[in-house]
Every structure is written in C-alpha cells, then in structure tokens.
Amino acid sequence: MTDATRSARVIDGKAIARATRAALATRIAGLGFRPGLTVVLVGEDPASAVYVRSKDRAAREAGIDARTIRLPADTTEPALLAEVARLNADPTVDGILVQLPLPPQIRAQAVIEAIDPAKDVDGFHPLNAGRLADGRPTLVPCTPLGVMKLLAATEVPLRGARALVLGRSGIVGRPMAALLLGADATVTIAHSRTRDLAAECRRADVLVAAVGRPEMVRGDWIQPGATVIDVGINRLPDGRLVGDVAYAEAAAVAGAITPVPGGVGPMTIACLLENTLTAALARRG
Ligand code: GUN
Q1: Most informative mutation of 100, 115, 267 for ligand 1 (most atoms within 8 A of CB)
Q2: Does the active-site annotation cover 99?
Q3: Which of 59, 102, 137, 138 has CB atoms 3.0–4.6 Å from 64's, for a disulfide?
Q4: 55 catalytic, yes or no?
Q5: pLDDT at position 1 over 50
Q6: What is the whole-number distance in angstroms between the Cα of residue 187 and the centre of ligand 1?
Q7: How many helices (H) and strands (E) does the chain have?
Q8: In the chain, what are the domains?
Q9: For 100-125, what is each residue's pLDDT tens digit?
C-alpha cells in the first residue's frame, strides 16, 4: 500500500448488536407475554458452555423466558430425541436450540431434523433451509442473518453488487449466499476446490469469509474499497484470536471491515433473540 493513511471503516458489531438487542427488548416488553427459549447443552465442552451462558444471559436481558437444559456427555441419542420431543410439545417453549457440536454417539442431523421447524431458532432444519434456498425465508441461521444486519447498518449497497461467499457450510456459507441473492447481489460461492481463489476474491465488492482458516484471506486478495465481513474465529497456538482474514493487511485496502472479535460474533446472539421473537409471534398467529 503506497497510501499509508488509507484505512477501512471498522464495522462495530458490538455496538450494532447492542442496538439490535435494545430494540428487541423494547418490542418484547410491549408484547404482553414472554417468548420462551430453551437451550440444550450436552456434555462439558468448555467453548460451548461459554456460548450457552452468553445466549442465556442475553435472552434474559431481552425479556425472554430463557432456560438451559444441561445433559451429561454420555446422553444417548434416543434420550436427547425424547427431550426434543418434550420441548416440541411444551407450549411455553417458542424456540429450541441444541448447542453443537454434540458428543460422537449422537447424530447432529437426526437431532436437527427432530426439532419442530416452527421452533427451530437456529434455522438448521431442512424445511427452513429449503424455504430460504427457495427465496421464502422464515427462520434463518443466526450468523448469516447477523451479517445481513451488519451490511444494512453499514449501508452497503447489495443490489447488483458482486458478493463472494468463501465457504459452503450449511450453517454459514450456503444460507449466507441465499440471503445475499435475496438482496439482489450477484453471488459466487468459493470453497477449498475453487481455482484461483485470490482472483475470485479480487472481483468481490462484498466478501464474506467463513472457512475457519486463520488469516487465509490476504490484503492483496481484496478489491480496493470492498466490504469485508470476517465470520472466522480461530484460536492460534499463542492464544490470539484471529479471523479468516489477515486484518491489518485487509484494513489497509478495504472500504469497510469487521474486526475479530467484536464483528460478526455479537450479532449471532442478537439474531438468536430476534429468531425467538419471530418464532413466538408466528406460533401465536
Ligand atoms: N455451535 C456453534 N455455533 C452454533 C450455533 O449457531 N448454533 C448451535 N446450535 N450450535 C452452535
């Protein structure tokens, strides 16, 4: 970079998430009932325990009736499916979230497909994924929904823009591409088998990186002035937390960029609360 003064606008996910949560709390306070969210945590994975506590606290702060069910690591798949069936039938539960990953004896897909699609606040059920792919989104996965809110808050134009989604997971990449397409972007999905990834990235006006590979996207992969959204959260051996994008290099080229942490992460929880409200309203007609 010859122009050393050039630097991207930093997209403050923490602040945007705070505002989103405050607006949700106001809406929920005016409802006359409390939406219910139940989070199920199986086992003792420390990262999952931290996430679940954050979700529970944020939900309570928004006025949601939040409950966490903790099950032992040796829970069987039939036992977890029975718990899901009980929550499906419980009228006080509007949203069900089974925290992933699950222990190896439980098939995550079987559990996801057992959740009532009307209570699927993760948006992972094939019916909800299919509706989104079909352009009729209902309950949408929280992380890509959060990215759309960051783009809207930053007033990034999407209609006709070239958007590149790096990663094709069912949790982020695929639903992200569907949402960007729904916003009239011209969408490319790139992945580990894509030829000349750098060239694909350089064409993008909006680049969403969701591959889980620390600092893979370099500064010279980015079109000057592009918007860069970094979904990655990677822990380096030295303990540092970095995204999928080499932040300092990218920030020197991009027009706007999300930091890690403090970018996409806080929006994921805000969108879980929003999905809980969406499910609660839909269930009450
Ligand atoms: N584990 C990490 N992220 C998520 C998520 O968004 N939903 C669920 N259920 N588990 C997760």
Answers
A1: 100
A2: yes
A3: 59
A4: yes
A5: no
A6: 25
A7: 10, 11
A8: 32-116 (3.40.50.10860), 141-265 (3.40.50.720)
A9: 999 999 999 999 999 999 999 999 99
